[in-house]
């Protein structure tokens, strides 16, 4: 999720546009909420004149101040030369779902220059980032202390992907269960406890590193995301996998998130909508 420095005006304009749209939505929602509230009775003023400490405001009761987190995000992306790695169209795939579901629970595998954007777009919800590089976590925390992130260790490697793909098709990996107690080699068992306990509305897999043979690859992250979605109590989970132009991301997302659950693909991002399996644990792993 750590992008190369680019000078793309289109991406910057998109990012600002998305924030402005969300801010307008925030104001409209707040105004609508205020209009539905019962009017507060006005106490009679003393006949002697206005109160000594009374403050005159030019703002109506429905006037709202932009949240500080959104303000910081707008300032950051309007002044930074480092832009998100995803393209304009790729960002839009996830932002459209966030527009409908936020505030919600959003789990992101990866921590990067786009993390402040995802957190701001989920204003009022909970967004957690899982990152493999501890020193990178410290750098981001110094700049954006409001982001909630945790270190994750991976013991897989990209050059093991073919073997792990076959393992994932075995009897230890197809039953739906809490990943913490799974017998499957692909299940991530060392994540923070709250990651397993929260009912995630959105999960994005944009990490760990996966572009060279000795890198950890996203095999276990993709499998675990799919298992969390199936194991939730009810409802559906929107799962996004980035870099599906690469062999591992393409094959593992199709195998463990299933072609039948694909809702959209735009560029290098693929969107799946996976239902809970808890009411029918005997249904096929993939339809």
UniProtKB/TrEMBL annotation:
Query: Does the record bear Glycoprotein in its keywords?
Result: no
Q: Does the keyword GTP-binding apply?
A: no
Query: How does this protein lie in the membrane?
Result: Single-pass membrane protein
Q: Which UniProt keywords apply?
A: Membrane, Transmembrane, Transmembrane helix
Record Pfam families: IRX15_IRX15L_GXM
One GO biological process term is: xylan biosynthetic process
Q: Where in the cell is it found?
A: Golgi apparatus membrane
This protein's GO cellular component annotations are: Golgi membrane
Q: Which InterPro entries match?
A: IRX15/GXM/AGM (IPR006514)
From which domain of life does this come? Eukaryota
Q: Which NCBIfam families match?
A: A_thal_3515
For this entry, the protein name equals: Uncharacterized protein
């Amino acid at each position: 999720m750590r992008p190369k420095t680019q000078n793309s005006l289109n991406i910057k304009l998109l990012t600002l546009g998305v924030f402005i749209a969300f801010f307008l939505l925030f104001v409209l929602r707040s105004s609508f909420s205020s209009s539905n509230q019962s009017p507060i009775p006005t106490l009679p003023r003393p006949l002697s004149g206005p109160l000594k400490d009374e403050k005159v405001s030019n703002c109506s009761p429905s006037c709202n101040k932009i949240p500080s987190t959104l303000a910081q995000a707008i300032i950051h992306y309007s002044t930074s030369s480092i832009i998100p790695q995803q393209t304009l169209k790729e960002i839009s795939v996830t932002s459209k779902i966030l527009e409908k579901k936020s505030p919600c629970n959003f789990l992101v595998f990866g921590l990067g220059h786009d993390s402040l954007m995802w957190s701001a777009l989920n204003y009022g919800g909970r967004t957690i980032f899982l990152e493999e590089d501890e020193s990178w976590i410290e750098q981001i925390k110094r700049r954006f202390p409001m982001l909630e992130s945790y270190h994750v260790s991976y013991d897989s490697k990209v050059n093991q992907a073919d073997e792990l793909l076959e393992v994932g098709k075995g009897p230890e990996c197809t039953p739906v269960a809490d990943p913490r107690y799974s017998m499957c080699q692909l299940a991530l068992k060392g994540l923070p406890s709250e990651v397993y306990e929260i009912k995630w509305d959105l999960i994005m897999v944009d990490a760990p590193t996966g572009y060279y043979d000795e890198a950890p690859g996203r095999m276990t992250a993709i499998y675990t995301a799919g298992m969390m979605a199936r194991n939730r109590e009810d409802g559906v989970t929107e799962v996004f996998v980035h870099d599906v132009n690469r062999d591992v991301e393409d094959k593992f997302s199709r195998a463990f998130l299933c072609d039948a659950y694909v809702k959209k693909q735009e560029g290098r991002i693929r969107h799946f909508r996976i239902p809970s399996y808890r009411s029918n644990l005997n249904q096929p792993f993939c339809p």
